[in-house]
Write a structure and sequence with these properties.
This protein has 113 residues and is α+β, with helices and mostly antiparallel strands. It has helices at 27-40, 57-66; strands at 9-14, 22-26, 50-55, 76-82, 96-97.
Length: 113
């Protein structure tokens, strides 16, 4: 609770080795979860249908040691597995995503006269 008595989070873990330290779920997240539980009976999570591994210098080098064709990157996301239920199989299994450009698609014929 804040000084005005408003709930700002729900405690979910307390550090037993340190007095007065705990961790809370922000109230905005709690509200969204409660709404999903009320609407659907479960929490709806995004599903991409792939396993992902956040890359850093260490694990990138380890992957390059196993496969010399692995790209020389210090950060990014490696996709070691794409499940069959994934939509359209994007990105392909074994891809390494180190940059992503998001573009807005225009509808066909938009603006044409």
């Amino acid at each position: 609770m804040d000084l005005d008595g408003a709930v700002v989070g729900i405690n979910n873990m307390k550090a037993t080795s340190a007095d007065g330290i705990s961790f809370a779920i922000p109230i905005d997240v709690v509200k969204a979860v409660v709404k999903q539980l009320t609407d659907h009976g479960h929490v709806v999570r995004p599903y991409l249908g792939m396993k992902m591994l956040e890359l850093n210098r260490v694990n990138s080098k380890q992957l390059r040691d196993r496969d010399p064709n692995f790209p020389r990157v210090a950060s990014g996301v490696f996709i070691p597995q794409v499940r069959e239920t994934s939509t359209r199989g994007f990105p392909p299994q074994g891809d390494c995503v180190h940059a992503l450009v998001v573009m807005r698609a225009l509808a066909c014929g938009a603006g044409e006269t």
